[in-house]
Amino acid sequence: MGQSELKLQTLASAGKELKDNFLRALAEREEANRSGKMTSVIFIRDHNTLGQEVSGYIDYAHRLKTQDFEPYFSGKKQLMPGRSDLCYYNWKTQVSTSNSSPNFEVIYDDPNGLLFKNKRDKKILNVDPSSGPGEDSNRTFLQSDLYVHVVIYDHNIRTV
């Protein structure tokens, strides 16, 4: 078995027929997030199993390390923000949490609004849609049949 075949087997998205734009976008970023070349922050707004609107920011690279993504890519489970993610808000109960991750520090008291500071290169990721996302970062708005609103922020890590 060759090196590239071995790598494909470790990707949760490998061999899956992904019909949704959001799942395809996650699959395109999976290898880069697992290898540390990129860290992506996923914003999701949707309704939880109780029908309550929730939204939040997920550190994709961290979730890939701590969770099995096969159920998400195979459509058995829906990726949702939780209280342990970077930021989480339940619009009905008004429960709000923010947590730093191994990749990002949450900055929520800045006059520019919510920011995430990458712990490796110290660059700031700005999630305000009316501002640029920041140096070495891109913002991708996605249409998804699975979620009300999805945005992926990719932060490319420069290797020195």
From TrEMBL:
GO terms for cellular component: cytoplasm; nucleus. It comes from the Eukaryota. Coiled coil: none annotated. It is found in: Cytoplasm; Nucleus. Keywords: Cytoplasm, Nucleus. InterPro entries: DUF4464. The keyword Ion transport does not apply. May be involved in spermatogenesis. This is Cilia- and flagella-associated protein 299.
